[in-house]
Design a protein that fits this description.
- The termini are far apart.
- 45% of the residues lie in helices and 11% in strands.
- The strands form three sheets. Strands 3-5-2-6-7 form a five-stranded parallel sheet. The protein has a two-stranded antiparallel ribbon with strand order 1-4.
- It is globular and about 55 Å long.
- It has helices at residues 2-32, 46-51, 77-84, 103-108, 110-115, 131-134, 138-145, 158-175, 183-187, 199-202, 206-214, 227-232, 234-244, 291-312, and strands at 61-62, 67-71, 90-92, 119-120, 124-128, 150-155, 222-226, 256-259, 264-267.
- The protein is of the alpha/beta class.
- It contains 14 helices and nine strands.
- The chain binds adenosine-3'-5'-diphosphate.
- Adenosine-3'-5'-diphosphate is lined by residues 73-79, 130, 164, 230-231, 264-265, 278, 282-284.
- Adenosine-3'-5'-diphosphate binds next to helix 3, helix 12 and strand 9.
- InterPro entries: NST/OST, P-loop_NTPase, Sulfotransferase_dom.
- This is Sulfotransferase domain-containing protein.
- Residues 65-297 form the Sulfotransferase domain.
- Pfam families: Sulfotransfer_1 (PF00685).
Length: 318
C-alpha cells in the first residue's frame, strides 16, 4: 500500500515537473521570439502568440512587422523599401497592406494582417503603406498592436512632393478617362490659402500628420529620412536605417547601381543577380504647375515646415 502511494506521488510529481518545464519552455518562446514584433508588456491572445512564434517544424513562418515605413507618399517609399530588402536581416511585405488605414482590412483582424507578411525566420519584417502617415486613426491603432513599433518616415521638399503627388493623380485620372485636375484651382482656396481638403497638398503638411504620431510614439522611435538625399545618395540613408534597426551595415554601394537613363539608382541583391529598377511612375517628369503657383505654395508651407523642424529637432533646407 505504502509502496503504491509512493509510486503515485512519484508519478504525479514527475507529471507536474514535466508540465512546469513545458510551460516554462512555452513562456520562453513567447517572450524571446526575435521577430514577434510584440513586447511582453502587451496582452496577447493565444492565437497571436502561436502565429508570431517561429514554428519548429517548418523552416519559416510569418511575423508581425516590427518596423513600419509610414510614408510620406511620393517621398521615395518604394525605392527605400526595395533597398532595405537588400539587407539579409530584413524581410519586406511587397505590396502596401493598408491594414491600419482601411476599415475593411482592419476589421479582418490581426491574423489576416499576419497572413499578408512574407515568410521569414528571425529577420525583421517591415511593411510600408504611405497612407499610414496621414490617416488620423492609424497612430493609435499601431500603438495598440505594438507600442514598441519602430517607425520610418521619409520626407522630401513638400512643394516638389505635392507636385509629384498631383502628377500621379493627374496620370491616374488620364488613364481612367476622367476629367483632368488643374493644380491652382484645387490647391488654393478663393482667398489664396492652402486648401486643406485637397490631398496632394494636404499630404505635404508634415507637422499636422507627425503631431498625431508623436502623441503615441516618442521621437526616438521614429526615424526621419531625407528623401531628396536618398534619391541621389541612397547609401547614406540606408546606413541610417541600419543603425536605427540595430543591424550591421550589410547594404553596400555595389548593391545600388546608378542608371543614367532613369536618373536614379537601381538595385541588385548580389553582383550576379538581376538589376531591378522601379517602374515608370517613379521618377517621371512632373506636371508643370507654373512658377507662380509653386512659389505661392512654398510661401504658404513655410510655417508648417518650421513646426515640423521643431518637432523633429532638425531643419531641412526647405
Ligand atoms: P518622382 O516620381 O516625383 O520623381 P514613392 O515610392 O513614395 O511614391 O516615391 C516616388 C519617388 O521616389 C519618385 O518621385 C522619385 O523621386 C523617388 N525615388 C527615390 N529613389 C528612387 C529610385 N531609386 N528609383 C525611382 N524613384 C526614386
Amino acid at each position: 500500500m505504502i509502496a503504491r502511494c509512493g509510486r503515485v506521488v512519484v508519478l504525479s510529481t514527475g507529471l507536474l515537473g514535466s508540465l512546469m518545464i513545458l510551460l516554462q519552455l512555452q513562456i520562453f518562446t513567447f517572450e524571446f521570439s526575435p521577430d514577434a514584433g510584440i513586447t511582453s508588456t502587451q496582452p496577447l491572445t493565444m492565437e497571436r502568440r502561436a502565429l508570431s512564434t517561429p514554428d519548429e517544424e517548418s523552416p519559416s513562418s510569418r511575423h508581425f512587422p516590427r518596423v513600419l515605413l509610414i510614408g510620406v507618399r511620393k517621398g521615395g517609399t518604394r525605392a527605400l523599401l526595395d533597398a532595405l530588402a537588400l539587407h539579409p536581416r530584413i524581410k519586406a511585405a511587397r505590396r502596401e497592406v493598408h491594414y491600419f488605414d482601411d476599415e475593411d482590412n482592419y476589421e479582418k483582424g490581426e491574423e489576416w494582417y499576419l497572413q499578408q507578411m512574407p515568410l521569414s525566420r528571425d529577420e525583421i519584417t517591415i511593411e510600408k503603406t504611405p497612407a499610414y502617415f496621414t490617416n488620423p486613426l492609424v497612430p493609435e491603432r499601431v500603438h495598440r498592436m505594438n507600442p514598441a513599433m519602430k517607425i520610418i518616415l521619409i520626407v522630401r521638399d513638400p512643394v516638389t512632393r505635392a507636385v509629384s503627388d498631383f502628377t500621379q493623380v493627374y496620370y491616374n485620372r488620364l488613364e481612367l478617362n476622367k476629367s483632368l485636375p488643374i493644380f491652382s484651382d484645387l490647391a488654393f482656396t478663393k482667398d489664396g490659402e492652402i486648401n486643406m481638403t485637397y490631398k496632394p497638398v494636404r499630404n505635404s503638411l508634415y507637422s499636422t500628420h507627425l503631431e498625431r504620431w508623436l502623441k503615441y510614439f516618442p521621437l526616438g522611435q521614429i526615424l526621419v529620412l531625407d528623401g531628396d538625399v536618398f534619391a541621389k545618395d541612397p547609401l547614406s540613408q540606408l546606413q541610417l536605417s541600419e543603425n536605427f534597426l540595430e543591424l550591421p551595415h550589410k547594404i553596400r554601394a555595389d548593391h545600388l547601381l546608378f542608371n543614367p537613363t532613369k536618373g536614379f539608382h537601381c538595385f541588385r541583391k548580389s553582383p550576379t543577380s538581376k538589376v531591378k529598377c522601379l517602374g515608370r511612375s517613379k521618377g517621371r517628369p512632373h506636371r508643370n504647375i507654373g512658377d507662380k503657383h509653386q512659389q505661392h505654395l512654398a510661401q504658404l508651407l513655410k510655417l508648417h515646415n518650421r513646426a515640423f523642424f521643431q518637432m523633429i529637432n532638425r531643419a531641412f533646407d526647405w
